[in-house]
Amino acid sequence: MVETVKPIGVLTDLLQITDIPEIIDLLIASKKARFTIEGFSMYPTLRVGDIVEVDPLTKETLEVGDLVVFQKEKKLICHRLVEIFEKNGEAWIKTKGDTVEESDTPLALRQILGKVTRIERDGIPRIPSAVPQKLSFAEIIFFSAYRQFGGKLRPKLRTVFLRSLSSLLFRRVYRFLFRPDVIYSVRIPTASTPDPKFWRSVQSLPGANESLQDASVYRFFAKVGKNVVGSLEVRTLDKTASQWRVSHLFVRARYRGCHVATTLLRRSFQRLRRQGASLLSIEVGPQNRPALSLLKQLGFDDAVQKDPFVLQKDLSFPLKRLRGEKELQPFLYHALPSDTLKESFLRSVAKHLFFEQALLEIDTVFKNAGIPFIVQKGMALAYTLYPDPATRPMVDIDLYLRKNDVPSAISLLEGLGYELGAAKFREELITFGGELSFHKKNAPFVELHWCLEQYERLKGIVKVDEEDLWKRTVSYTISGRKFLTLCSEHQLLALSIHLGLIHRFRGSLKWFLDIDQFVMKFGEDLDWEELFQTARRWGIERVFCQVLLATQELFNTPLPPLPIQNSSFFLRHPIFQWFLPDRPSDRLRVLFRIFFPSREWLIYRYRLKRRDLIPFHRFLHPLFVLIGKTR
Q1: CB 156: neighbour CB atoms within 10 A?
Q2: pTM, entire model
């Protein structure tokens, strides 16, 4: 039997990658390391639970009888040196465990990691013995039986233990008791790294995070306090940096099931896709079912070869989905310039200049009147999210106001020559709707908004914090003039409400593209846990997750772990909208309001001029809902 040396609290990784790199780099960096013992191959010199102190060694300090540490089959072994000899001009050694009958395979001196200089047992320091101690008759019988059966039992017991740590019950209990606060970061190796081969060598380097552009190696870390609980390393396979492979993935056993590996992989998807990567591959042993299941869930394709399995993940943006969308041709032109798309891009440039002039005119009038407003959707996203404003198509200008300022804003727009659509129903529009649409000859449409939930059926169910919305606004510049827009978190939630609740997952593909581009640009900087908590307070956690999942289906968008993983497909018909609110009572309220709206809403929705027509439309309205002809 062999003596396995292991850092305290570290277990073998389920993806078949161990802590060996961590231990080697620790020796390189600190010149000394302390490990705990498991096993009986050096009994009684070393016993289970002893702590050994290991120093780096040289040929001059090595003598027969020393206890040395070396790596073998992804394990650290501590055995006694029994012979030193020369072979092909290089120093070689032979080792053997005190309770093992046969010697180990000879090793080159460079394969020895360190020499044991001190043993600590029950808090009492001891000097390693250069001579093996004799065993009693009972100990000889015990180790004979252990050599016969222990090697067969230990791997099975270890497997059972690791599987129990990854079981659903353990994960639920651990998440409830500890709720680990994991901090994620990404770094690249630097020239000052002592040994760039191993991931631990960059942890103490404060300058290792200076630049993340055009790197050939990325290392992602998950920390709880000062302790690294997970790491991931990806390396490029070609000069164009289009194909990458996972060379290292590790998560400590106690943190498995807490989405650490999932988050590390998703963050690598974001980083690599942002750099233009098209393919990510990883090798996994065929018996490693937890890893295979995880990778399948993250969208890795079937294995290229069978032993080991080589799984691949397509990271490229699916531009083919945009080819049939005329309004997205400017975005397609920016990604794949061609003469056939150039004309649509130039038209989009001219249209944006036209929209800019209208917005600047409105801004001047509103500021003179002291009416603040927030620019929403197209005009905000074009300048804060997209690589070129002309790549984001627009059909109107969306302005968000406080409800008290709406009457004054209507008067100002009418003073500029804008006319309100359906002016006869102005009061009903303000009461039951959340927007007013204005039009003007030779000018873009302008829409005024004063609530994100917009529809009557969502009032009291979607609870947007209006004060926080205005308090956390950010500014951006158009033609040298500053405008307000929503902060990143609120912008993403507002887009989700607009796409999932207002338009019920139907409409323009550009709205899904907005979500994708938003995640790609700001995803690494967002506090997703806080974002989900805000969505929960607003009552839109379910719809928020459904919008993210639907976007991922369309554009291969890398996402963090979501608290809700249901498919959004069955939610696209209006009759299933009662599934969207978070609380069951609110789902019933939405369902009732969809089928049985108020009399005033029926008059507003169907533009009824005679009240005796209300019963007739109340009978027809549920039929219109079932066939999807009404909102």
Answers
A1: 9
A2: 0.64
